[in-house]
Amino acid sequence: MSSTPRSRRAERQRRDWRRNRRLTGWLLLAWFVVSFVVAFFARELDFDFLGAPFGFWVAAQGAPIAYLVIVWIYAIVMDRRDDERGAPGDD
């Protein structure tokens, strides 16, 4: 017995939502590591990096760069998924 178009659409939406949650979870984990884990242990890594203490460099330069990379990854992946679904948008 074949499924109805409505049930197929609902299943596809559930699958897409699971994929989006998984991506968001991994990116939030990366954010947590950059924000808390690296900054917490940076004090113990007492060495100069590019002329400044490593802890300062992580807070002042590394974290914002990592946040931009996280946003960039999210945008690229979601754009590809939109293309796979044939969602309307920028071509």
TrEMBL record:
Where in the numbering of this chain does the Sodium symporter small subunit domain appear? Answer: 14-84
Keywords (A to Z) from UniProt: Membrane, Transmembrane, Transmembrane helix
Enumerate the transmembrane spans: 23-42, 54-77
Keyword S-adenosyl-L-methionine (UniProt): no
Q: Which Pfam families match?
A: DUF4212
User: Which protein is depicted?
Assistant: Putative solute:sodium symporter small subunit
What is the organism field in this record?
Answer: Rubrivivax gelatinosus
Native organism taxonomy: Bacteria, Pseudomonadati, Pseudomonadota, Betaproteobacteria, Burkholderiales
